[in-house]
Amino acid sequence: MSNSKNTILIILAFFSIYVIWGSTYLLNKIAVSELPPFMLASMRFMTAGILIFIIVKLMGKSLAITKRQLVNTAIAGFLFLTIGNGVVVWALKYVDSGFAALEISSQPLVVLILMRIFQGKKIEAMSVLGVILGVIGIFLLVSQKEVVSQEDSIIGMIMIFFCMVSWASGSLFVGKADLPSNYFVNTGYQMLIGGLMLLLGSLIFGEVWSFPSEWSQKVQVSMVLLVIFGSIVAFTSFNFLLKKVSPDKVATSTYVNPIIALLLGWYFLNEEITTQSIIAAIVLLTGVYFISTKRKLVIFSRFGR
Length: 305
What we know:
Blueprint: H1 3-32, H2 37-58, H3 67-83, H4 86-91, H5 97-104, H6 107-119, H7 125-142, H8 145-148, H9 153-176, H10 183-204, H11 217-244, H12 247-250, H13 257-269, H14 275-292, H15 298-303
């Protein structure tokens, strides 16, 4: 693949995970208002996985993978989709979509810490400042009385943090794992296996399933958009980027996701945007910027000589 074509694909892939994923918080919030969370996530990913396999066959590509690749796609599907996404959908029953996106905006902080723990990556001075700002931002976000007073909101916040750790672990794992070279094949197996695990979870929790014909029109539209754009387009772009750029760069989608989620939640669902949420967003996203930038703090470089 030529450098220019590769650059264009990287730009389009970043657009997908920045903008499309920012809208999925709204779509999931709409759908989970009527559907059980694990059923919703399971149907979304199994449908997307099957559609991707059909696309792969129409492209004349093979679905064959090695046993190791099958195991690795299962691990990635579990970390990304079963836990990293399915449990977030469940948490959206208790927290606003914009709030969830803001909390998840601290994802680069989690990725950085895990890279330090498991890969021994040095944390630069700018990143240290970013971590401090990230912690302050999270505190400002979760300490709001408007949030804490909501029923089961604390459980929702804790589960979202657990999902961030799972997603960050998956990002590091996929960056090094032996996976199918075709990104559609890779995504398809992750979707299908992750969806099957969510199906098992749905059955364990005794969720009642329903046919799409029984859903309201807004839920039907939300599911179609989640399957086509949120799953097939954006998640394939995500897997592509994890092989082309570093995990902490991919995690910068959290710059844009919360802004889009906040605006869409405010416009379509009348979710409240408090002054403290805005301050928390500024602090968090500033922290994310410091974590992602490669520039060093002048004050550290001057006194470090």
